[in-house]
Amino acid sequence: MTANLSEPLRLPRGPNWKNRIALAPLTNWQSHADGTLGEDEYRFLTSRAEGGFGMVMTCGASPMKNGVAFPGQLAVYADDHIPGLRRLADGLRERGAASCVQIHHAGSRANPEISGEQAVAPFANEKYNVRALTTDEVREMVDAFIAAAVRCDKAGMDGVSLHGAHGYVLCQFLSHSRNLRDDQYGGSYENRTRIYHEIIDGIRSATRPDFQLGCRISPEKYDYSTAEAFRFAQELVDGGKLDFLDLSLWDSFKLPDEEAYHPKRLVDVFGALDRSSGTRVGVAGHIFSTADAADCLNAGADFVFFGRGAILHQDLAARVLAEPDFVASKFPVTRAYLAEQSVGAEFRRYLATGWPNYVSD
Questions:
Q1: Rounded CA gap, 182 and 186, in Å?
Q2: At residue 247, what are phi and psi to the nearest 5 degrees?
Q3: Is 155 left (phi over 0), alpha (psi -120 to 50) or beta?
Q4: Staple 175 to which of 121, 208, 223, 245, CB 3.0 to 4.6 Å?
Q5: Does residue 141 belong to any structural domain of this protein?
Q6: Which of 14, 100, 104, 13 is nearest to 53 (CA)?
């Protein structure tokens, strides 16, 4: 059952991943107020590398101060952030894992109390004091994403991934009913997807040839059809500029919201993406066991992301590869248990306050 999961993953650029198991990007509150890497975040990530993950991805790291969403969020908007990233890149490499920074701007979901700046998005939301970006500001945002990737490159990270999912700023541009901008970044499908292509093209031009580049998208629930999501996913894969596409399915095994796709599950629908370009496709969402991961690969995925299970087991990847019947533990758990799994104090606080029934004490 685990043979495919154990197989190294070759990507168009950069190092091979030693297996098909990746650490999902996880909000964790473990870095410093200025966005520099915290010791607890370093320990959490390197312990997962020690635990056998083929690729370790950071939490979303903001490329602009006005994009910060949560306290203790990692950042990549200043050169001051490079030394911590360099230490992390070295630590992950020494432990045998490929390294990746997820670049994340929260858009309308940014926290002005943390950044000291008004939240911005493709369209205004007066109820939440969110201002619409001007065209020049959209171009500045594109440049900021590219500059963030260059900093990661300078730090020796193997690559970056764009957070284009979950209703954050890039995903907000995709909104069919709300992104009615009258410039080249709104209205039509081509305009609503333009910012992704500009960032991807810019990163490819500004980073080393073997720098890995990924992108996370959501296939449904964010004001565009599943057909449009599939079209966009195939377009990103066909472009050949991405090394991997990360599909955040929430539940990989559910039926799509749109009945026209039944009886296929979401993982089946997106597992059918044509990968003749060489771009790899990974999936995330409700993957808790060796059997779940193998099911995703059998459905067409090239690799899988573990999130909640990876919080509960720092050696989850090694156990998945060694135990055909492995199933991750379930929440709630004690703070002491989480500490044993290299989950820092602030991450434990986030789990206790932000997620019902995750922490039992």
A1: 6
A2: -100, 110
A3: alpha
A4: 223
A5: yes
A6: 100
Q: Which of 354, 310, 327, 232 is nearest to 51 (CA)?
A: 310
Strand bridging mode 280-284 / 55-61 = unpaired
Task: Give the tens place of pLDDT for each residue, 41-65.
Answer: 999 999 999 999 999 999 999 999 9
Q: Which of 265, 268, 157 is nearest to 211 (CA)?
A: 157
Pair 9, 305: CB distance under 8 Å: no
Structure token digits, residue 199: 């960032």
Residues making up the chain, counted from first to last = 361
Exposed / middle / buried, residue 74 (Cβ in 10 Å: 0-12, 13-18, 19+): buried
* Cβ–Cβ < 8 Å for 107, 175: no
Tens of pLDDT, residues 216-246: 999 999 999 999 999 999 999 999 999 999 9
Q: How confident is the model at residue 161 (pLDDT cuts 50, 70, 90)?
A: very high
Tokens 């432990």 label which residue?
Answer: 95
Which residues lie across from 306 on neighbouring strands? Answer: 23
How many domains are contained in the chain?
A: 1
CA distances, 278 to each of 18, 237, 270, 302, 311 (Å): 17, 8, 16, 11, 31
Domain annotation covers residue 349:
no
Structural domain range at position 261: 3-330
What ranges make up the beta strands (E) of 158-211? 159-163
The rounded radius of gyration (Å) of the Cα atoms in the chain is 19
Phi then psi for 264, rounded to 5 degrees?
Answer: -70, 145
Task: Answer yes or no: is 278 within a domain.
Answer: yes
Q: What is the pTM of this model?
A: 0.97
| Residue at 352 is within a domain | no
- 3 state DSSP class of 356: coil
Kindly report the CATH number assigned to the domain that includes residue 117.
Answer: 3.20.20.70
Structure tokens that stand for 98 in this block: 């490929």
